[in-house]
């Protein structure tokens, strides 16, 4: 047993009661924070998985679990939760619940086919696709489950469908009275910055499922608690929720400040810079622009065959956007391993601008992306188009972006519109913060 594990075991046996009585920790009506010791003297961040591992997974002992996870669920040393649980014979992983992009992202070689079903070779557990095959975990696997365990790295923005799928799992857990345990992980884009509009109910979708602004500043555990306490699952349902919190995470930390192992949270999010830019540039999926799919730098580029790049850059420089530089480029999208669909303008020569973050603390991805979009709309009123079905409204959460574009107002009008949402949500979320 390592020195750290030995110290943690000692602390857990001697300090849990004291920690549990710490009045500074939030208490909730329907959700529970698992008591953990104060580990501040170690001066490193421990995720919920790290904490559970140092407890020798005793809270899972003797249970048959359903695990909702993906490739990001690794400990400080980069070992995946499935590999760790393989060494815990008292825990039975009976089913794996897979989000969009699967358990392993692009690398599905760790799964094998048995008949028409995928099975995890480590645990022999069936892999249930909760994105393209099922919406809810089917009863024939939930009948064998004592606990649902959730561990994945959130992106810090509300676009990914992972949270919507987790909410569907919560619904099933509520109906079948199965306890849920969430292992907390950092918000990779800091936990002290909130930005963007809160979705209006008529525009809610899998990519704006709950009433979170685009950049929400919450950890996975905090989102789980907020959803559960507010009864946002469906019909005011709640689950028996336990969150295993992190230790030593501060809200002003970027992911690379934590020194934790990075795993791409989605196949097209390759590093922290692309993750930050994605918070704004993902809105371009609601338009006919290419945003770097079919290149090695998705989200870092926006372009099309008809874009007047030099004039656009001049207009952007007039906006004096902070923390970012723009470069004129030519490129040709050619297929994409990062997306299941053919990229826009596949194999066509495109003019584009490339974004380079010069100061991530000053850079505002939402203001930058919407400014670029509105300027392109003004420069190319005939060529620029919105995707059908009001998709941009579902991504943005309101129709304000389209309205401002139609009214040809200056781009700086838009952030002022969502500022009230930011203020109200930041005030509202305080009750649910656990760090």
Task: Give a description of the structure.
The protein is of the alpha/beta class and 435 residues long. It has 2 domains: 3-266, Rossmann fold (3-Layer(aba) Sandwich); 272-422, Aspartate Aminotransferase, domain 1 (Alpha-Beta Complex), CATH 3.90.1150.140. 29% of the residues lie in helices and 14% in strands. The chain is built from 12 helices and 12 strands. It has helices at 3-20, 48-54, 81-86, 139-142, 162-176, 220-230, 272-281, 309-319, 365-379, 391-396, 400-406, 413-428, and strands spanning 31-33, 64-69, 92-98, 112-114, 117-119, 126-129, 147-151, 180-183, 241-244, 301-304, 324-331, 350-357. It has a 9-stranded mixed sheet with strand order 1-9-8-7-2-3-6-5-4, sandwiched between helices. It has a 3-stranded antiparallel sheet with strand order 10-12-11. Helix 6 (220-230) links the parallel strand 8 (180-183) and strand 9 (241-244). Helix 7 packs across helix 9 and helix 8 packs across helix 9. The radius of gyration is 22 Å and the shape is globular. Mean pLDDT is 91; it is low at 1-24.
Sum up the structure in keywords.
435 residues; alpha/beta; Rossmann fold; Aspartate Aminotransferase, domain 1; 2 domains; nine-stranded mixed beta sheet; 12 helices; globular; disordered N terminus
Structural class assignment: alpha/beta
Across the major sheet, the strand order is 1-9-8-7-2-3-6-5-4
* Rough outline: globular
**How far apart are the first and last residues' alpha carbons, in Å?**
29 Å
Q: Give the low-confidence spans.
A: 1-24
CATH-defined superfamily of the largest domain: Uncharacterised protein PF07075, DUF1343
